[in-house]
Write a structure and sequence with these properties.
This protein has about 325 residues and is an alpha/beta fold. It has helices at about 45-50, 120, 125-135, 150-165, 175-185, 200, 220-225, 245-250, 265-275, 295-305; strands at about 5-10, 15-20, 30-40, 65, 70-80, 90-95, 100-105, 110, 145-150, 165-170, 190, 205-210, 225-235, 255-260, 285-290, 310-315.
Amino acid sequence: MRALVTRLRADGRREKVLVHDWPDAPAPEGNQVRTRTIYSGVTNGTERNDLVGGNYARPEDRLPAPRGYQNVGEVIECGPEVTTLRRGDLVFSSSDHLEFATFPEDWLVVRLRPSVDRRDAALFGMASVAMRTCRNAEIRESERVLVVGAGVIGQIAAQLAAISGADVSICDIVEPRLEIARQIGAASAIINTAETRWEEAIPEEAFDVVMDFAGVPGMEDHLLRAAAPRGRVMLIAGRSEVRYTFNLGQSREITIRQNNHFDLSDLQMVHSLTAEGRLRISPVVQDVVPVDQAPQIYETLRDNPEKLMGTVFVW
């Protein structure tokens, strides 16, 4: 079957390519289902980390290998113990970029409502990471929230924080991303920290919650300074280490929390909010391309990641 896999080139660099002879997904057993992929979404941070051999990339001795967790497919076969899904259902699952996928029906999977755009659903994985982060932040009404990084996850997190009743600010150094934030309208303040120095643009002790989706090394003290007394600083996965001046957090009793993936309840909440029209994913879908154009997308992701937002492959 077709699959998008990371592999080593002759010069030792990594690339991600479409292959046509990847081992087929097994027939479903027990409560498993088998799906035929319609769309899959690029997970920008995770897949770039794999492409550059980052801190949680697959080791070289395990390449070639697929990597991804956003898949929209049609159920084409059910195991004998399946009770909630049936053939013909359209589902999102946390599956790789594979032409066919097999997984348990009680895994990270949700049946899509008719009101959900299937292309938008191909980014439900990253949206669920944003949901997980916002839930961990325990955002309360009228709190001041700073979203650092206006990529896909940051844009979704800004919306979710606004839905919770927060006063949201979002910042980035890439102006086209900030223009998308303006279009969405979830943030009351949109800040270009390339045009204005962080120290001038981001006031100290101004935010109850600081959510950092950018992961720029050396920014930790800036994040802590932005947090109000007893504020929360949320750090998203993908960091090799975290260094900060202890007294910055100690004096104001700042809570620092790490965030990773998502669970089924996060996914279900994202699905419901999207189906109800309260969460908008379409504005962050930048590229919808045939899967055979994936190598060009991954070259951009590896070498110029700031040029990509949400990318959906059509299978």
